[in-house]
Design brief:
This protein is of the alpha/beta class. It has 2 domains: 29 residues; 148 residues, Glutaredoxin (3-Layer(aba) Sandwich), CATH 3.40.30.10. It contains 6 helices and 7 strands. Strand 4, helix 4 and strand 5 form a beta-alpha-beta unit. It is globular, with a radius of gyration of 17 Å.
C-alpha cells in the first residue's frame, strides 16, 4: 500500500512539473505567484560565487564588478532556456562596449554543457554549476526553482531585477535603458 501511495505522489509531482514546463514553453505566462519578482533580494548586494568556466578555470563574479551583469541560470534540457539564448547573444554583442555582460550559469552536467555549447556561437562566459548552481539560484532570489532564471546586477553590485522564465530581448533592453545603458 505504501508503494502505491508513494508512486501516486511521485506521478502527481512529475505531472505538476511537466505542466508548469509546458506553460512556460507555450505561452510565456506564469501564475501570478511565479511572475512576482523576488523583492527580498532587490536592492541587496549580489551573492558571491566562484564556478568553473568551460575551460575548467575557476572564475569569480567579482571579475565583472563595475559592469551591469545579466546572470542567467539555465540547463541544456530546458526548452525556454535555449530559446532565450539568441537574445543574450544579441544583447552581449550590442551592449558589450557599454559595461554590460551576460554570465550564463548552467545547472547541468559538464558533458551536456560542452556538447551543447559546441553547437552555438555563444559570445559570453558560460559557467558549469551542476547542483551548486541550483543552490546559487536560491541565493539570487529563485525561491521556486524555476529555469530559466535571470538576475540583473548593477554596477554597484546590487540586484536590480529578477526574472522567472524565458526573457526577451525587449525586456533586457528595457532594464538596460533604466540603468542608462544605450
Amino acid at each position: 500500500m505504501k508503494i502505491i501511495i508513494i508512486s501516486l505522489i511521485t506521478i502527481a509531482a512529475a505531472a505538476a512539473g511537466f505542466f508548469l514546463q509546458q506553460k512556460l514553453s507555450t505561452d510565456n505566462t506564469l501564475p501570478a505567484a511565479v511572475n512576482q519578482p523576488s523583492l527580498s533580494v532587490i536592492g541587496q548586494l549580489r551573492p558571491e560565487f566562484v564556478l568553473p568556466d568551460l575551460e575548467g578555470k575557476l572564475r569569480n563574479i567579482s571579475e565583472w564588478d563595475g559592469k551591469i551583469r545579466l546572470v542567467n541560470f539555465w540547463a541544456t534540457w530546458c526548452p525556454p532556456c535555449l530559446r532565450e539564448m539568441p537574445a543574450f547573444i544579441e544583447m552581449q554583442a550590442q551592449f558589450a562596449d557599454q559595461d554590460f555582460v551576460v554570465l550564463g550559469i548552467a545547472v547541468d552536467s559538464r558533458d551536456a554543457v560542452d556538447t551543447f555549447v559546441e553547437t552555438m556561437d555563444i559570445n559570453y562566459p558560460i559557467f558549469v554549476g551542476d547542483s551548486a548552481a541550483l543552490e546559487l539560484t536560491t541565493l539570487y532570489g529563485n525561491r521556486l526553482g524555476v529555469l530559466p532564471f535571470s538576475v540583473f546586477v548593477g554596477k554597484n553590485n546590487k540586484i536590480i531585477s529578477t526574472h522567472n522564465g524565458e526573457i526577451t530581448a525587449e525586456t533586457i533592453k528595457s532594464i538596460l535603458l533604466s540603468q542608462s545603458v544605450k
